[in-house]
Specification:
Distance between the termini: 51 Å
Strand content: under 5%
Helix content: over 70%
Order of helices and strands: HHHHHHHHHHHHHHHH
Length: 337
Amino acid sequence: MSRENAKIKRMKLIEFLERNRKSEGYLLKRTLGKMFLSICRALLLFGLCFLILQPLLNKLTVSFMAEKDLYDATVISIPRNFTTSNYKLVSELIKFPKALFTTAGISFAIAMVQITACTLVGYGFARYKFPLKNFWFLCVMLVIIVPPQTIMSSLYLHFRFFDVFGFFRTMKGEPLNLLNSVTPYFMLVGTCMGLKSGLYIFMIRQYFRGVPKELEEAAYVDGCGRFRTFIKIMLPDAKPILTSCFLFSYVWQWTDSFYSNLFLRKLTLLPSGLRSIAERLNDYVKRTQGEGNLPTIAYQQCLIATGMLMCIAPLLLLYIIAQKGFVESLSQTGIKM
């Protein structure tokens, strides 16, 4: 078998040299040029991947280091005293199991409501004509452009003194206080004013604009109404873009700190737990080692890095599970757009 392979390779080499001779060296130059471009492309991709992954790998190695390794100049990337105590301590400080399930449940519920509302609005912009359509779509673009921090004071006052045409003030004598509850969050995403809602509306609108109108017309001829056509014909075809938008929404809700600080302060969430690791570590050290002892800044940063890894690990697992559908949705969305 090896002799046959060697004979085949020799024949291919002789054929290549003969073709190169007939082309006056052009074939060899083109082959070497392709090889050079492939090597440059590989080096470029390796450099970009290294820039992205290197900080994450640093945090991963630090998370397994004992505290004395942090001050050892000879320890750079590989821990000398390997330990998992950092993960146990962070899990205790941020109440990781409870925070994990609470964050996952809220992110899933909000993402579902947000994508449902954005799908209806995006489909309406793509398929129907109504007064001031361009103006309302301009408002959608403003939702994308204007950062939510600019309306933070308005949101706080609106939901702190929530009222509908003076109804609650008349019935109860004062407006409702909806802060520190999930209700304002659901109201925002249900009215397409949540985090990145404008972006999802734009993506879904672009997708539906690329779907042939003949599909709807054929459904109308077969006796389907508008709602049934949307449910039976358009939604199944829109699974790729809906998958993309749902994953984006879920991940952004998972790592969101703006709306969590504004509305969900009383809930045990992973982002809020990460922000309070240093404070909770100080209390833990004082409680276990005495009032005069405080953790070092290096050890605080080590635990914060460990907490960040614990926070993003479920998202990485989600991406691995949904990778096929996510990549397929992005590729099909690009073709439709």
